[in-house]
Amino acid sequence: MRKIDRYVMSTVGGAMLLVMVVVLALDMIFALIAELDDTRNDYQTLEALLYVVLTLPRRIYDYLPLAAFMGCLVGLGTLASSSELTVIRAAGVSVKRIVWSAMKPALVAVLLGVLIGEYIAPPAERLAQSQKAVAQGAGQNVASASGVWHREGDTFMHLNAVQPNGVLHGVSLFEFDADRWLVSARFAERGIHLGDYWRLENVVTTRFSSTETSRETHRSMRWESGLSPEVLSVLIVKPENLSIRGLYTYASYLGEQGLNATNYWLAFWKKVLMPLGTAVMVMVAISFIFGPLRSVTMGFRVFTGLIVGLLFKYMQDLLGPMSVVFGFNPVIAILLPIAINAVVGVVLMRRAG
Fold first, then answer.
1. Residues 102-131: pLDDT tens digits?
2. Most CB atoms closer than 10 Å: which of 58, 80, 191, 248?
3. Any idea where the domains of the chain sit in the sequence?
């Protein structure tokens, strides 16, 4: 029986690895082509290639649920097509045992995904984004499309690039009064964190009043701000690419500032519930093999798997923004598609059993 367990595990695990390699290869090729269209200044072909490589951990994390689902579908489908699954069941192996053997590689993939998403992908993503922004000329007095906006009190700020070592490039600060009139606009080429404050370098300040406009320049000046390099390292990365810990920290910080943190809480719960969602998708794949997809061609299985995987993704992508717009709990937006798939998987498994 253990040989059968290992055989099922190796078949499903090998299929998962194959799906991951194929999907990643295609994704990286298209990503490199997209980056080559964005080259300018010092950001050229070599820098674009380095950017794609640094974002590889994030891409692995993104595609692990799909690889687990499709790998299970393809692996068990191969056994079903060659009648090996029928022979295994005729040998007295229960459906539950086959399911558990197929689930083991998926659980390894889930654990690997959690580790990558928490400890490897976020710092690599921060490094990739900051190096790209600096190479594209983040010190220029132009709001970069890859930069970030943030608000602190009556001051709105835009940062063209944030390096992991606590160095800012292209700092724009816009200060408003209580009536929302622009009081001053300040630009600094760089900002360096020095313990409890920031030192801005090559600063140009424009002050506005009802009668005149004045302009000042400074080689350096002190900037008091509650922003720390730790908070900024979270700010420069999209919510879905942050770690669970980083999402919780920044969402709590936004709440303390009286700002809307719904997007970050949505990404937080999506990451927390990712292992559960992946396990449910794998169960659905297994139920398909023992149920409606038992005797169809491999191409049809792959097609069906893609349709089901896309439906699951689109449901979460649709319900997520709806939770932001209509104000219901983001946990519902993440759990509802998982619950629907779980019900489908349980029903099909009971029919197969």
1. 889 988 988 998 899 989 998 898 888 888
2. 191
3. 2-135+263-352, 148-235
